[in-house]
Amino acid sequence: MPDSPLLTAAAVAVIAMAIAVVVGVGLKVLRSFRDLGTDAERATYHTLHAASQAGQHLRRGLNPAGASKASRHLRTLLGCDALAIADTSGVLAWDGAAEELKPRLMELAADVLAGGRTAVLSPGPDGTGGTLAAVIAPVRAGSRVVGAVAAFASSAGSGLVRAAGEVADWVAVQVELAELDASRTQLMEAEVRALRAQISPHFIYNSLNAIASFINTDPARARELVVEFADFTRYSFRRHGDFTTLAEELRCIDRYLLLERARFGERVQVSLRVAPEVLSTVIPFLSLQPLVENAVRHGLEAKEGPGHITITADDAGAYAQVTIEDDGVGMDPEQLQSMLAGHIDGEHVGLRNVDARLRQVYGDAHGLVIETAPGEGTLITMKVPKSQPGHDA
Known about the structure:
- It contains eleven helices and twelve strands.
- By secondary structure, the protein is α+β, with helices and mostly antiparallel strands.
- It has two domains: 39-181, GAF domain (Beta-Lactamase), CATH 3.30.450; 215-385, Histidine kinase-like ATPase, C-terminal domain (Heat Shock Protein 90), CATH 3.30.565.
- The strands form three sheets. The protein has a five-stranded antiparallel sheet with strand order 2-1-5-4-3. The protein has a five-stranded mixed sheet with strand order 7-9-10-12-11, covered by helices on one side. Strands 6-8 form a two-stranded antiparallel ribbon.
């Protein structure tokens, strides 16, 4: 039977209503995107985004590659026709118009770099020598003027002067952060050199004496010890990389203990328990060997009779946890705490250097945990993340 006019009209009405709902929802969604945030919120977002993008390129300080990429974002931030970044030796980057002024920038910025005061130059022969005005603001790192930011526009009003000054100050902060990172890297390298210096006079002298004692009585053992000594020193004095793997560090410790057992014989007993899944974990170079050396030198060497060292490396979820325990003479906890804080000098410089490097790399929560008391031995715990994308062994 054919559909009645009433049913047809109802179907058309339902379809029309559905279309109206879809269109209404669509318009509402479009309006919500258009009205997302106030003008002030959008301006704040664009400002922070541009600063964030520029900051990524200045993490290594003022250099041509980073400055060139950052200048594009900073020019957008200031809304000027051209923006230049210079250090004290020359122009690092130029973005935008008026490139005919680029050869003269160091001349225009000479007073700024010398005196550290912002310069405002008008267009024309008495100012920039071009068709644009310029605001040139100094970039200071501490008390030093290390560069300048120059903004070029049709006119240099008070708004551009203040904004260029703020941008130059922001660039200065990035430069200081880059210098801080470089200083921290140099400090870590110095601490590694200190650990190597600590190894060389004490351990090398005693190892060579131990090897010499076997030359006549057991030549084969002497040859074996020479090979182990060579491998140990090659690893300890390598010149590349601030990081290694747990497996490599344990291999170094095995050689170290083999040489120490040549000196002490059965007085040094060692137990080792390592979870295979943590062997590839990246750790700071020479961060375990000094802890084992501390156990031998300051724990067992002063103890009468045999001593025992237990080394464990466990999988602790997102972390690898390493413990080094000895049943030696122990230490005074308060004196140890003062030494770790750098308040007093002590024999345990290796512990202090390792503790400081761990805190620098992973944060204060990852310093050494040391449990000790006179006559009670020492337990040292170190915990490092198993995933470290920025560190290569």
